[in-house]
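Question: I have long wanted to understand how a fold can be written as C-alpha cells. Here is the record:
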Amino acid sequence: MMVRDISEFSRVKLARAELEREVAERTEQLSAENEKLMREIRDHNRAREALRETEERFRAIFENARDLIFTKDRSRRYTMVNPAMEKLHGRKAADIIGLRAEDFMEEEAAKRIKMVDLRVLAGETVEEEYVTPIKGQPTAFHGIRVPLKDAAGDIAGMCAVVRNITERKQAATAATVLARRNYPSEAMQATLRDASYAAPTDSIVLLLGESGCGKDYLARWIHDHSPRANGPFFAINCAAVAKELAESELFGHEPGAFTGARGAKRGLLQLAEGGTLLLNEIGELALSLQSKLLTFLDTKSFLRVGGERSVRVDARIIAATHRDLQREVVEGRFLSALYYRLNVFMIRVPPLRERREDLPLIADEIMSTLAAEMQRSDVPVLDAFAIDALSQYHWPGNVRELRNVLERALMLWDGGSLELGMPLQDWIGDGWTHKVRFPARRSLHDVADEFRRSICEEALRRTGGSKTKAARLLGISRGAFYRYTKGGGVSRDF
C-alpha cells in the first residue's frame, strides 16, 4: 500500500482559495472606488461646466451692464472694473485697476467714497443716492456696496453696483418742482429767509407751527435747496404710526425680531442715507423712541429692532410739530435732552391768517395742482369776490383747510362762476387774532388806534356789515364805534 503526504498540498490549496477571495474582495473594492471616482469626475465636470456657464453669464452681465460694477481689495484699490466704469471715467480698466478713488477722482468725491468704503470694509452694506462731480459735471448715482468675504469668513474686499440716475433725477425734479414765487407777506418772507439760512447746512432744523400750515412743504423746500437735493427725501408722521410699529418703521428690524418679521427691513433712517428725513409731529413720539432717537442724533448710528450690530447712517434730520415742546418737557411728555438737541435752528411757520396777502398765490398754486390731479384741462380763475371771501375767513385749518375748500369747489364747478362754499361755523366763532408788531416810528397811540379799527372791522364781518349790531357785539355805544372807525378805512364791502 502506497501512502502520500498531502498536507502541503492542502495548505497550498487553502492559501490559493484565500488569495482568490482577497483578490475578489479587492477587485470589488477597486470597482466600487472606481465607480465612486467616476461619479466624482462626472460631478466635477458638471460643476465645472456649471461654473463655466455661470462665469460666462457673469462675464456677459459684467461687460454689457449699463450699471457700474467693480470690486476693491482691503486697501480700497480697484481689482475689477467693467466697461461701463471705463466709459464713465474715460479710462481703460488697466489704468484703473490698482488705483484708489483719490488717485483719479476730484477731492470731495474721493473723500466721500473713502468714508463709505471704510464703512463697508468694517462689515456694513451701504445703499445710497448721492451726487458727485464726473469730469466737472455733477452726476447723480444710486449705489449699493457689500463686503466680500474669504473662505475663512474674513472680509477680503468689497463689491459695488452703481447706477447713473442723473436723467431720472432731473425728470423727477422737473415734475415735482416746488413753486418759487415771492410771497408778499412779511411773515412768509421772514420764514423763507430763515429757511434759506438753514438749507445749505447739515444742521438739525425744528419747524414749529399750527397743524396744516405747511411745515412739510417747508421741509421739502429746505431739502430741495440743500447740498442733499439729489439725495432721497423721506417723511414719517409720528402721530400716524402705531407705537408698536414706530421703532421698526424708523430704525428697521432683523429677521425674527418679532412675530411676522420674516426678513430684514431697512428703516426710514437707513433709506434716507445721503438725504433728508422729516420727523413730522415729533411731539407724538413715545419716550422710549425719543431716547433712541437722541442716541442716533449724537452718534449717527443705531441698532435695528432685534439687531446686535450698529448701523451707521448719514442722513439729515428735520423735525416738525404743532405742539409747544417746552410745555411738553415741563409736563414730562418730551425729553428735555432731545428738545435741546433738536432746537439747533428753529423756524416758525406762520398760520394762514397771518399771511392773508399770500392767499391769491397759494390758491392759484393749489387750484392748478388740483386741476392736474383731476385731469381737467380748464382751470377756474378766482375773481376778486372769491379772493375777498377767502381773505375774510379765519382758516383754523390753515392751508390744508384751504385745499379742501378749493377741491370741493372744483369738484362742483360746471364751468360757470366758482362757488367756494365757505365753512360757516368759524365765521361766528369766538376765535380771532390780531398781530401787532413793535412800533417802528409809530407811537403807542397809533398802535392802539390800529387795534381798535381792526377789531371793529372783525365785528362788522361777524354782523354782516351792521354797525349797530357791531357796536352792541363789542359792548360800546354806536357813537364810540363811529369814533373808532372814523377815517380808519374800515371796509364797507361785507
